[in-house]
TrEMBL record:
Higher taxonomy: Bacteria, Bacillati, Bacillota, Clostridia, Eubacteriales
The organism's place on the tree of life at top rank: Bacteria
Swiss-Prot/TrEMBL keywords: DNA-binding, Transcription, Transcription regulation
UniProt KW Transcription regulation keyword: yes
Domain HTH lacI-type, first and last residues per copy: 1-29
Protein name: LacI family DNA-binding transcriptional regulator
SUPFAM superfamilies named among the record's database cross-references: Periplasmic binding protein-like I
Gene3D superfamilies: 3.40.50.2300
């Protein structure tokens, strides 16, 4: 720059009281273009579809996805959050979190973070989910409306808040239909295929099979179906089962699983969009997006004549 030009620039800086935004320049220099996605497991197909949705938006924005499995361990989550604090990644999307609402709220106030799918009650953090309680209510009502009066619940207990909400939706549907809630018709084995197998083994020890089972995940429904089949119990005829998630395997399993369909790709895409908002302005509002669900009717539920 020529001396005369430099003098003109200096005069303009003094006149405008201009101060370089060193913080902004530093943040841009330190941007990694990497997003960390934390999943409790990779054995559940449900999460892979959400991750695919996250990745589709991330790639459009020039970001790369890093996947880490926490096994639902608090210490693992804290270690990965430290990566964000050390600026090794730009943001985190949780598919599940074991942290308290207070902890998540505190972290999210200082660092770009989003919850996708799984709710942490009262946490001040951007969130994308469905109405789990309403979806469970509708699934249970679907069974009742098709003539099933004794409806069991294959639950995951209070392992995840979504499981708690789904149990409440189940209870709501029973109550509205004049059917007393019976805790003896509830198993609490978890969300996995093996959890479904254990639930079915318990149910077969009852004095009488229920008319139907609402399973809190497709993996649970499929695990139950496999055990019933091995013991000569025909799902869709001798007992009805409705699942939750609409994983791809549910459609092609025999019998195909009637299920609550969650918009998995949309959950991932919306979560990444919310994270982009936080990357641009950490102080922007913590939006909570509730996406629609629907029931996919297949062959694992015996329908009343009016539905056929």
């Amino acid at each position: 720059m020529k001396p005369k030009t430099a003098d003109i620039v200096k005069d303009a800086i003094r006149e405008l009281d201009y101060h370089p935004n060193f913080l902004g320049r530093t943040l841009r220099r330190l941007e990694t273009m990497k997003i960390l996605v934390l999943a409790p497991t990779i054995s559940n197909q449900f999460y892979s579809r959400i991750i695919k949705g996250i990745q589709s938006v991330a790639e459009e924005e020039g970001y790369h996805i890093m996947l880490a499995v926490t096994n639902a361990r608090r210490d693992a989550e804290l270690e990965y959050i430290e990566m964000l604090q050390r600026k090794l990644v730009d943001g985190i999307i949780f598919l599940h979190s074991t942290l308290s609402a207070e902890e998540l709220s505190e972290f999210a106030a200082s660092w770009p973070m989003v919850l996708a799918n799984e709710i942490v009650k009262d946490a001040e953090i951007p969130l994308v989910t469905i109405d789990n309680q309403k979806a469970a209510y509708e699934a249970t009502r679907f069974l009742i409306d098709n003539g099933h009066r004794t409806v069991a619940l294959a639950s995951a207990g209070d392992l995840y808040y979504s499981s708690t909400l789904r149990r409440q939706g189940y209870i709501d549907a029973l109550s509205e239909s004049g059917i007393p809630y019976d805790p003896n018709l509830v198993t609490n084995e978890g969300f996995s295929f093996n959890a479904g197998r254990r639930s079915a083994e318990q149910i077969m020890q009852w004095s009488k099979l229920p008319d139907a089972v609402f399973a809190v995940a497709d993996s649970v429904a499929i695990g139950m179906t496999s055990v019933f089949h091995q013991n000569g119990i025909e799902v869709g005829k001798d007992i009805s089962i409705i699942g939750f998630d609409n994983n791809q395997i549910a459609e092609y399993y025999i019998p195909s699983i009637t299920t609550v369909s969650q918009p998995q790709l949309d959950i991932g895409q919306k979560a990444m969009e919310l994270l982009m908002n936080k990357l641009e302005d950490l102080s922007c509002e913590n939006r909570h997006i509730v996406l629609p669900h629907r029931i996919e009717i297949r062959t694992s539920v015996k329908l009343s004549k009016s539905e056929t």
